[in-house]
């Protein structure tokens, strides 16, 4: 068995040491939760009668308390294509639970917004804080003391992190994440990008653009590009919180149904009254968090997880930062090229061997912790196999090697030697930059700044021809405290057009870009943010800005004395429409992006 890579070992040890006091408090929390907290034995007769009053044929079993009752927390809605399949899951789960003598109830529903619908719209300002809302909703669902295990039904960007943050406060419960899978492949991604850029240039109209987008996003299931939603699914695999290989099996297939059934059966087997107890709070430990970061780097995963992973970790009493991400990125080779980092989508990735190949290769190279507690049988080795149906029975089999090396490679012949997520720091603060889809010739951009406070102003300047030059586009007052830290993916086509015209172009922002960050260099999550005095507020139009993923620099090339003497501009007024004003409390109390940009975790830690 290969020894653990020294960098992975060093970073893990540092996280363990840094987190020791908080992790100890957290483990004490989950021990108390199991022994004296939320369980049916603590309920009065009136409490319990309320809990099973409408449970039909399951009422008698729930009443006795002799079998596991599973709480289903669902993010179902039928506007979000990835979550539409969940509509019928509760009934299937209840049937599967009865097969092993258990019961299941829908404990609660949580919101699930679609960033694809809200991208570039006012609703995007609610996006990041929807994660914290989902965490609160999950906690409410599991607070009823009716459940000995939990099944979390969620896939997309903020939903999986939110479900985990909430469920980890009930970390004594064994818990399994249940995905629904990606939609079948539609219009080729390269063609979709071509039409978007033509539209940005005014060369095609809205009808042509809508036809292209409809051919891309065409049915039930997760969007097929490798953005935050599919990065979520990858992480749940390398953390051992799915049934092995469940991430990328299409909805509505027999195999998908059997994986869901297997998850229910497995949850019943890992309860606290048996000999294989696997509580969520023990599964999500320092090693599992490191595995999640390793997986992100190995697959070119979403930059949004530079925010979400620290937040998930904090909910389990673990502290990670962007230095940890950067050091792991330097040690982990890039094994996958999935759009926007390549031409194939997640269906092509899965067909090439998918997560089975990634996990096995990383384990064999000593880059993943094998000895983590997973929801499956042994350790992470189980996740190096792919699920199949043989004679209608669910089995797992080895995948000897990648079936398509244009999409997926082994650790001995990676696409690049590192994971492609860089930490930049300098007189503008700290930020991250994903370079796995960026031409290495563009890893360093030095150009005059064009400073904006709103992404729509960027697009107006583009259409007016004001950005036809080498330029570092700076969009500030986009952090969590300013306006909820929206994604600025709406800028991608315009910036891509400028780059294709031969200009040196980069984006610098204290906002987010997207899990679909692509070919344009983007220095994002700049922290501290402009609101409250972050140094990006000192920038002026025309200042030369250097963004360099090679040296890890993000700096304004302004004399130090002049730089320090500059005053901060007035912040734009807070947004007030589409419900954004309801999140004022979250904005005012949010943490730094590097800590997870979470108002609820920041508040929680003042109490515990």
Automatic annotation (TrEMBL):
Residues 407-597 form the Dihydroxy-acid/6-phosphogluconate dehydratase C-terminal domain. GO terms for molecular function: 4 iron, 4 sulfur cluster binding; metal ion binding; phosphogluconate dehydratase activity. It comes from the Bacteria. The keyword Ribosomal protein does not apply. [4Fe-4S] cluster binds at residues 156, 223. Residues 70-381 form the Dihydroxy-acid/6-phosphogluconate dehydratase N-terminal domain. GO terms for cellular component: cytosol. Binds 1 [4Fe-4S] cluster. One of its GO terms (biological process) is Entner-Doudoroff pathway through 6-phosphogluconate. Its cofactor is [4Fe-4S] cluster. Gene3D superfamilies: IlvD/EDD C-terminal domain-like (3.50.30.80). The keyword Nuclease does not apply. Pathway: Carbohydrate metabolism; Entner-Doudoroff pathway. It catalyses: 6-phospho-D-gluconate = 2-dehydro-3-deoxy-6-phospho-D-gluconate + H2O. Keywords: 4Fe-4S, Carbohydrate metabolism, Gluconate utilization, Iron, Iron-sulfur, Lyase, Metal-binding. It holds the Pfam family ILV_EDD_C. Its EC number is 4.2.1.12. HAMAP family: Edd. Belongs to the IlvD/Edd family. Catalyzes the dehydration of 6-phospho-D-gluconate to 2-dehydro-3-deoxy-6-phospho-D-gluconate. This is Phosphogluconate dehydratase. It comes from Sphingobium ummariense RL-3. The gene is edd.
């Amino acid at each position: 068995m290969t020894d653990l890579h020294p960098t992975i070992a060093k970073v893990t040890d540092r996280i363990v040491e840094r987190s020791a006091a908080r992790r100890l408090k957290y483990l004490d929390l989950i021990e108390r939760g199991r022994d004296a907290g939320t369980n049916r034995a603590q309920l009065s007769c009136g409490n319990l009668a309320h809990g099973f009053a409408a449970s039909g044929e399951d009422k008698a079993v729930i009443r006795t308390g002799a079998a596991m009752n599973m709480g289903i927390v669902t993010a179902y809605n039928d506007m979000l294509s990835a979550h539409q399949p969940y509509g019928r899951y509760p009934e299937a789960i209840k049937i599967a639970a009865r097969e092993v003598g258990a019961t299941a109830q829908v404990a609660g529903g949580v919101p699930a917004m679609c960033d694809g619908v809200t991208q570039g719209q006012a609703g995007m300002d609610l996006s990041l804080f929807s994660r914290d809302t989902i965490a609160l909703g999950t906690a409410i669902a599991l607070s009823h003391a009716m459940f000995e295990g939990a099944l979390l039904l969620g896939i997309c960007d903020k939903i999986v992190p939110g479900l985990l943050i909430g469920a980890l406060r009930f970390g004594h419960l064994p818990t399994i994440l249940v995905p629904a899978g990606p939609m079948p492949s539609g219009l080729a991604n390269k063609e979709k990008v071509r039409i978007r850029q033509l539209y940005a240039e005014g060369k095609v109209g809205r009808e042509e653009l809508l036809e292209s987008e409809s051919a891309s996003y065409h049915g039930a299931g997760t969007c097929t590009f490798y953005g935050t939603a599919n990065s979520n699914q990858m992480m749940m695999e390398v953390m051992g919180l799915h049934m092995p290989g469940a991430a990328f099996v299409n909805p509505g297939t027999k195999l998908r149904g059997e994986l869901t059934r297997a998850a229910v059966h497995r949850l019943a087997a890992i309860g606290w009254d048996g000999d294989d107890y696997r509580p969520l709070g023990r599964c999500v430990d320092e090693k599992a968090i490191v595995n999640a970061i390793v997986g992100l780097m190995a697959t070119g995963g979403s930059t949004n997880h530079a925010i979400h992973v620290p937040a998930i970790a904090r909910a389990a009493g673990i502290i990670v930062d962007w230095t940890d991400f950067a050091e792991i990125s330097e040690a982990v080779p890039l094994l996958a090229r999935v759009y926007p980092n390549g031409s194939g989508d997640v269906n092509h990735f899965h067909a090439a061997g998918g997560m089975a190949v990634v996990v096995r290769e990383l384990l064999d190279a000593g880059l993943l912790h094998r000895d983590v507690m997973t929801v499956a049988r042994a350790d992470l080795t189980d996740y190096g196999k792919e699920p199949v149906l043989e004679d209608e029975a669910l089995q797992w089999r080895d995948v000897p090697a990648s079936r398509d090396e244009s999409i997926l490679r082994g650790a001995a012949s990676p696409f690049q030697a590192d994971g492609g997520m860089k930490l930049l720091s300098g007189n503008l603060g700290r930020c991250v930059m994903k370079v796995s889809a960026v031409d290495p010739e563009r890893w360093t951009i030095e150009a005059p700044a064009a400073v904006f406070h709103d992404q729509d102003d960027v697009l107006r300047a583009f259409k007016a021809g004001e950005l036809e030059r080498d330029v570092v586009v700076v969009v500030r007052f986009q952090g969590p405290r300013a306006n909820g830290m929206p994604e600025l993916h709406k800028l991608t086509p315009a910036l891509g057009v400028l780059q294709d015209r031969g200009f040196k172009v980069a984006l610098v922002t204290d906002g987010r870009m997207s899990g679909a960050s692509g070919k344009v260099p983007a220095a994002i999550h700049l922290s501290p943010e402009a609101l409250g005095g972050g140094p990006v507020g000192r920038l002026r139009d025309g200042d030369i800005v250097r963004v360099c993923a090679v040296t890890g620099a993000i700096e304004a090339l302004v004399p130090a004395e002049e730089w320090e003497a500059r005053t901060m501009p007035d912040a734009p007024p807070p947004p007030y429409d589409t419900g954004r004003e309801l999140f004022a409390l979250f904005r005012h109390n949010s943490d730094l992006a590097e800590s997870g940009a979470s108002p609820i975790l920041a508040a929680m830690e003042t109490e515990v």
